[in-house]
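Entry for the shared binder. Reason: the reviewer on the internal report wants the predicted structure included alongside the sequence.
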Amino acid sequence: MSATPPPVPLSRDEEAVMRAIARLMLVLPRMLDADLVHDQRMPMSEYATLRTLSEAPGRIMRMSELATACFMSLSGMTRLAAKLESVGYLARLPCESDGRGFNAVLTDAGLARLQEAWPSHLASVRRRIFDHLGDVDLPQFAAVLTAMTAPVGPACDSAGCDA
């Protein structure tokens, strides 16, 4: 049996990048959420749910698929869907092909609410992200970020990594 070589320490520059990414992962979602709540009284989880449904064929998705697409647990999505349903932004309907499942359907009111919130979210994304990127090659940057989140090795844990 051969010994595993010791890990190579990070260089000063690598350490700075790792720490900056770790901060970005924690802080940026909170900032985007805070901006949306401040400007629209809408948390990012609601916005993401409405946006995801708006992009689905027929504005309808299985609840389980919607939860996965929004990086939420099914129980968390069920609670959020109930809230959005209570204000008329989505409807939950039994799945015709599977009596146990439910579909979420974006209502016209939900689409209108998404369209109302979109300019605020867009301004936040530009201010928080794109205003800092300067002359960065965006397709290359997107490819690097995508590669960082690609599954590697054994299956990911329940937190999910199949984005």
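Summary line for the report: The mean pLDDT is 93.
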